[in-house]
């Protein structure tokens, strides 16, 4: 016979409450059951064991010898189950899993998440970096930081920051291809990922709608961080978010040859399912993130 059929957990839970309180009525009140339902569960258990567990006396009950043997073990078992559940809840509450893009993680979140942990030392943070949107019904994670328009059904979305783009290259490459008198001159350079829609957006805004991008070889690096590294090494021109590369621009490792910056109206958003909006760890991270971005905008 299967193990599960020999373990009547509901009846054992009722027995534990009755034996602890020594009252069918009080056990029913604690468990949200009628006295009749409590009696039925006890009788079911007695039938399975083949022994009486209680003696019914006028205005009181007593444990039988079989009940006395069963009571401490059942109480101990349910105490262990409650302890295990509490430990599991604590583990979930104490870890916050954040899914975000590699670029946002490297150039903003990883540099500032320590400030969140100073204010919430009981919450451990785990970062998952992926450019693919997170599926909350399938993928591990509590919250996500996504790039887009903020129109994801079923998700709470908090606007974090607008994102702009502009071409950047190394000073070494700039010296080699000079002069760059107009945006069209960038086409003399190797374009890092010419299939990136930001390139077409930028060239159109720069008055070069006929830029020959389609026939160029694509290099798919998967993140701005890697594209920037390639640009810094002098391997081509990358289209990047200036706010993420202030240090590189200030130090001269990257050069923005034209002042024109563009945006496709996309932004970064903090998102999570509607059903999670009241979780303390999510509220704590949301409040910190929105306040920190307000104080230190890109």
TrEMBL record:
Signal peptide: none
Any Pfam family the entry gives: HTH_1
GO BP term, pick one: DNA-templated transcription
InterPro entries named among the record's database cross-references: LysR-type_TF_proteobact-type (IPR058163), LysR_HTH_N (IPR000847), LysR_subst-bd (IPR005119), WH-like_DNA-bd_sf (IPR036388), WH_DNA-bd_sf (IPR036390)
Boundaries of every HTH lysR-type domain copy: 7-64
GO MF assignments: DNA-binding transcription factor activity; sequence-specific DNA binding
Superkingdom to which the source organism belongs: Bacteria
Protein name, UniProt field: LysR family transcriptional regulator
């Amino acid at each position: 016979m299967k193990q599960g059929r020999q373990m009547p957990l509901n009846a054992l839970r009722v027995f534990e409450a009755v034996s602890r309180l020594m009252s069918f009525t009080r056990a029913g009140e604690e468990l949200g059951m009628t006295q009749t339902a409590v009696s039925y569960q006890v009788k079911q258990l007695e039938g399975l064991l083949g022994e009486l567990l209680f003696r019914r006396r006028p205005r009181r009950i007593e444990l039988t010898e079989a009940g006395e043997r069963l009571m401490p073990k059942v109480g101990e078992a349910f105490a262990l189950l409650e302890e295990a559940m509490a430990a599991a809840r604590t583990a979930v509450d104490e870890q916050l899993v954040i899914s975000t893009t590699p670029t946002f993680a490297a150039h903003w979140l990883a540099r500032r998440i320590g400030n969140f942990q100073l204010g919430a030392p009981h919450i451990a943070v785990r970062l998952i970096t992926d450019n693919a949107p997170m599926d909350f019904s399938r993928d591990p994670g509590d919250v996500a930081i996504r790039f887009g328009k903020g129109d994801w059904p079923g998700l709470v979305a908090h606007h974090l920051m607008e994102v702009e783009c502009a071409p950047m290259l190394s000073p070494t490459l700039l010296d080699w291809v000079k002069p760059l008198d107009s945006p069209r001159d960038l086409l003399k350079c190797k374009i890092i990922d010419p299939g990136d829609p930001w390139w077409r957006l930028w060239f159109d805004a720069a008055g070069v709608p006929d830029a020959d991008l389609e026939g160029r070889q694509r290099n798919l690096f998967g993140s701005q961080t890697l594209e920037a590294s390639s640009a810094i090494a002098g391997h081509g021109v990358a289209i990047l978010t200036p706010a993420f590369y202030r240090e590189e621009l200030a130090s001269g490792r990257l050069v923005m040859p034209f002042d024109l910056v563009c945006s496709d109206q996309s932004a970064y958003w903090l998102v999570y399912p509607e059903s999670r909006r009241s979780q303390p760890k999510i509220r704590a991270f949301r409040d910190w993130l929105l306040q920190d971005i307000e104080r230190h905008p890109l």
